[in-house]
Amino acid sequence: MQTTAVHASHDDLGKLILRIVLAVLLLFHGLSKIGGGIGFIEGMLQKAGLPGVFGYLVYIGEVLAPLLILVGVFTRLAAVVVAINMVVALLLVHTAEFFALSDTGGWALELQGLYLGTAIALVFLGAGRYSMGGAAGRFN
Q1: Dihedrals phi, psi of 14, to nearest 5 degrees
Q2: Is-contact 71 19, C-beta < 8 A?
Q3: Checking CA distances to 32, which of 8, 56, 62, 127 falls within 20 to 30 Å?
Q4: Which of 12, 132, 47 is CA-nearest to residue 55?
Q5: Which residue has the higher pLDDT, 17 or 50?
Q6: What CA–CA distance (Å, rounded) separates 12 from 129?
Q7: Angstrom distance (rounded) from CA 9 to CA 11
């Protein structure tokens, strides 16, 4: 019986680590956009035939959603938002690099792939016990 409790505790710790890594790394991108603006994103959206105003949604995907993930409230929903944000980024910015390797031999989009994969994992795992929403909280 005790091994089950220890296993659950380790699972919750793993979820916390995933949340912290994804949220903190994405927040750097969001803070950069807060400081430098989103003009380049608006330009890419318009080039793709979409309204440039959609660029402001990046603040939700790179600031608000990571903050929710970090504290563990609406984690699954916030992770869906991050995943959608990453798919849009891959399609708008990184399509040419999809099958490319970096100079060091890794996938050229490994960082974006890590963000997307971690967000999808959190969609299925939730925030865990170490969150404001709690393991079985209605906001988790």
Answers
A1: -60, -40
A2: no
A3: 127
A4: 47
A5: 17
A6: 6
A7: 5
